[in-house]
Amino acid sequence: MGAQTSLLVARLLPPRHSYFVDPAEPGSEARLPARVRLRRVNPQTLQKAALTACRASDAARKEILPRFRSVSVEHKADGSPVTEADLAAEKAMREVLRTDFPEFGILGEEFGVEGSGSVQWIIDPIDGTIAFSRGIPLYSTIIALVEDGEPVLGLIDLPALDERILGWKGGGCRRNDKPIQVSSESKLERAVISHGDPYCFDNAGERDAFSRMAREIPMLRGYTDAFGHAQVLAGGVDAMVDMDCNPWDVAATQILIPEAGGRCVTRKRPGDKIDLVFGSPALVDQLTDYLKK
Question: N or C: which end of the chain has fewer CB within 10 A?
Fold first, then answer.
């Protein structure tokens, strides 16, 4: 994957002559298409950030893959599992991100906040630690770059499957260097719909929504965590409802879905919890009706 990184990023980057921002030229930012207007993080910075995100993901793989199916599990204060692979991978990721962009902050699942400012990396070294700890290869590494709370770059890496999804604002979305798009399915009766764990619906006060989905959607499947998100991005799963997430679970998806032609509806709740409905725009419209307003 590392050898393909430069080529992948070069193909994702919008043409320089189309989206170059000259800070010395008044009004240059206003001429950008609305979907690629950026502030501090311009497209050239995003090219470097994409390379950095890929290198950080490579560093995480080096810590994760040798420990897969050979690691002990502990539990954090909130009851969620953690392994030495989570900790080692996040440390390795932070080193890469800090070296390349010392001015950017970092928020990670395992070690919290580092630095400050309007631009921040948000990282999850192993999303799907339950799967990882049980020897199930459907775990991932997630990296997002956020400016003033808005995701502008996202990466989802599936180490055991050797698949990596990368995209940024205005740059489209690719899996292993090939463009991907969300599904265009519009009928729930024909759609594959994924969901997170049922207890997350309970936490979000949406058990009734889950029960209704189970009754009414013929192909409702539990492809959880960012593995499920990745399947939606590539169109194999038509849409997903994911409740009670943390910022590091969803920041990458929030930018990747629109870059893959989809719709992502975000609902924020107390305690920094986030509920998402995303995928085919027509299906997202229907699935949001299942939830409480």
Answer: C
The vertex-199 CA angle with 196 and 202, nearest 5°, equals 110
For residue 116, the number of C-alpha atoms closer than 13 Å in the C-beta half-sphere is 0
| Joined tokens for residue 121 | 């990396």
Structure tokens at 94: 């932070």
Fold of domain 188-288: D-Maltodextrin-Binding Protein; domain 2 (3.40.190)
- Reported in sequence order, the residue ranges of the chain that DSSP labels E, i.e. its strands, are 73-75, 81-83, 105-108, 112-114, 119-127, 140-147, 150-158, 163-168, 172-175, 178-179, 192-195, 219-221, 239-245, 263-269, 273-279
Chain segment 184-193, per-residue pLDDT in tens: 999 999 999 9
Nearest to 274 by CA among 249, 248, 253, 244: 244
Rg (CA), the chain: 19
CA 66 from chain centre, in angstroms, equals 24
Residue 258's CB is within 10 A of a number of other CB atoms, namely 19
**CA–CA gap between residue 156 and residue 151 (Å, rounded):** 14
Q: Which residues of 23-50 are buried (b: 16+ CB within 10 A; e: fewer)?
A: eeeeeeeeebeeebebeebbbebbbebb
254-263 pLDDT, tens digit per residue, is 999 999 999 9
Which is more confident, 109 or 78? Answer: 109
Token pair recorded at residue 171: 């740059």
> The pTM is what?
0.87
Domain ranges of the chain: 2-172, 188-288
Strands (E) across 196-261 are located at 219-221, 239-245
Q: Give the CA count within 13 Å in the CB-facing half-sphere of 293.
A: 2
Instruction: Identify the H or E element spanning 251.
Output: helix 247-259
